């Protein structure tokens, strides 16, 4: 593959709602759109790092720096035949997974477009339609969350995830169960807001038949999660704690979780995402695709990876119109049936970019050439 040019664009896209978690809130989505040009095609991906280092240690600025100073030069200095070569080339760089994933993802898209293959097929996807859920943020009141649950259930989302934090947890889950019943596929995501000192809260949550509790304890922990999992019948799902297939292996061996959330950015790319998927499949651990409030470009990558067979639990890839007035992919990515998205079969990610919308959202851009 000949790479002729790499372009980075920083975009700011206003969200249609305020999205709050236990670690902060987002009103305007900030992302880096990566375009890799070669042999008449362009591959696209986006960096999912947030502006601030509160979900993980990366930020928009660290991603830009790592790409410019280390990762792009590696791509120009080495022959690349397949996306797996990129994974190997970036391996000596410690962490900075979101920076790596954005470049690797754009090269996956470019590679697929050059071969005339859909990204889903190239990754080993088997589904043409995927079930999706929705992640609902913390609101000022329980009633405001209930109103959102009602709206999104009516749209047919197959899994309702609510964000929790100490003081906004058991009462919320009890209210959702009371209003919508025990059959609603419901889970809670704590984004590391608890410690083992909150064991009583966890045991109370354990009474509500949740599909899982996502990342209750520290972002860098798998020991306490194993202790907690022994006390609960609800499966723990790890998000922040898993950066690689090695992390997944250790967490599963310790009994720290029963489910894993795969985010392509957090684990450093599609190649590593597929490894985690395959390993979890061999261990009978179901996986699902997490979200980072991605634009349509990032969500197109999420759709492609979700088409793999062990993504048996609906992910957080909601429709474009939930997030944006106008997405940066033409027409957005919308539900084709209640709670379902189509897996495109066109080349690469299968969506064209809306260059006019991108022009409205762009803050800065830079081009690199060999
Ligand atoms: O923990 O899954 C998370 C968004 C930003 C950072 C972390 C998380 C999330 C979400 C949103 O839950 C999922 C989405 O709608 O993209
Ligand atoms: Mg999470």
From TrEMBL:
One BP term from GO: menaquinone biosynthetic process
Keyword match Metal-binding: yes
Keyword Lyase: yes
Sequence ranges assigned to domain Mandelate racemase/muconate lactonizing enzyme C-terminal in this UniProt record: 142-235
Cited InterPro entries: Enolase-like_C_sf, Enolase-like_N, Enolase_C-like, Mandelate_racemase_C, Mandelate_racemase_N_dom, OSBS/NAAAR
Keywords, sorted A to Z: Lyase, Magnesium, Metal-binding
GO MF terms held by the record: metal ion binding; O-succinylbenzoate synthase activity; racemase and epimerase activity
Entry EC no(s): 4.2.1.113
Cofactor(s) the protein requires to work: a divalent metal cation
NCBIfam families tied to this protein: menC_lowGC_arch
Protein name according to UniProt: o-succinylbenzoate synthase
Natural source organism: Brevibacillus gelatini
Phylogenetic placement of the source organism: Bacteria, Bacillati, Bacillota, Bacilli, Bacillales
Gene name of the record: menC
């Amino acid at each position: 593959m000949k790479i002729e040019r790499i372009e980075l664009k920083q975009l700011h896209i206003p969200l249609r709602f305020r999205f709050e978690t236990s670690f902060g809130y987002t009103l305007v989505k900030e992302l880096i759109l990566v375009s890799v040009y070669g042999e008449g095609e362009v591959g696209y991906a986006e960096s999912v790092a947030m502006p601030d280092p509160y979900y993980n240690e990366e930020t928009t600025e660290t991603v830009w720096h790592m790409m410019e100073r280390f990762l792009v030069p590696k791509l120009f200095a080495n022959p690349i035949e397949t996306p797996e070569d990129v994974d190997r080339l970036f391996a000596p760089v410690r962490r900075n997974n979101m920076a790596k994933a954005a470049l690797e993802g754009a090269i996956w898209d470019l590679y697929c477009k050059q071969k005339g293959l859909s990204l889903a097929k190239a990754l080993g996807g088997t589904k043409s339609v995927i079930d999706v859920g929705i992640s609902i943020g913390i609101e000022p009141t329980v009633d405001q969350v209930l109103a959102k649950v009602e709206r999104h259930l009516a749209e047919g989302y197959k899994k309702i995830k609510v964000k929790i934090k100490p003081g906004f947890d058991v009462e919320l889950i009890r209210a959702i169960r009371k209003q919508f019943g025990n059959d609603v596929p419901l889970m809670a995501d704590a984004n590391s807001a608890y410690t083992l000192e909150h064991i009583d809260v966890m045991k109370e949550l354990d009474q509500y038949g949740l599909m899982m509790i996502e990342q209750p304890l520290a972002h860098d922990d798998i020991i306490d999660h194993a202790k907690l999992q022994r006390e609960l019948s609800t499966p723990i799902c790890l998000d922040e704690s898993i950066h690689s297939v090695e992390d997944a292996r250790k967490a599963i061996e310790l009994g720290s979780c029963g489910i894993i959330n795969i985010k392509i950015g957090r684990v450093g790319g599609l190649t590593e995402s597929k490894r985690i998927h395959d390993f979890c499949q061999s261990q009978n651990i179901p996986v699902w695709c997490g979200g980072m409030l991605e634009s349509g470009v990032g969500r197109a990558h999420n759709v492609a990876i979700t088409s793999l067979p062990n993504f048996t639990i609906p992910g957080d890839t909601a429709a474009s119109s939930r997030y944006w007035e106008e997405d940066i992919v033409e027409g957005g990515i919308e539900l084709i049936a209640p709670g379902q998205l189509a897996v495109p079969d066109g080349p690469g990610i299968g969506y064209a970019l809306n260059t006019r919308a991108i022009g409205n959202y762009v803050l800065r851009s830079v081009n690199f050439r060999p």
